[in-house]
Design a protein that fits this description.
about 80 residues, flat, mainly alpha
């Protein structure tokens, strides 16, 4: 049974995304991360998540300046 053209395009798009992500890997950073304790890895992940929230809230407030920082963060976090 042959693949549908849309499925084939989707799979090719996925392959390209994965190849792009692999090309961006920094092997030195991976080596550093492997030496971290689980608590340090958790803290790194948490820090990245907070940064992403802050950037999202900043960009949302550029479009909707009437929002407070707390309101923008609530929206970004998907909370009612």
């Amino acid at each position: 049974m042959s693949e549908q053209p849309s499925q084939a395009r989707e799979q090719e798009g996925t392959r390209r995304l994965i190849a792009g992500a692999i090309a961006e890997l920094d092997l030195d950073q991976i080596a550093v991360t492997r030496r971290l304790t689980p608590a340090q890895r958790f803290q790194e992940g948490f820090s990245m998540m907070r940064l992403a929230e802050q950037v999202g809230a900043y960009r949302l407030r550029l479009r909707r300046p009437e929002l407070s920082q707390d309101e923008a963060l609530r929206i970004i976090r998907g909370r009612p």
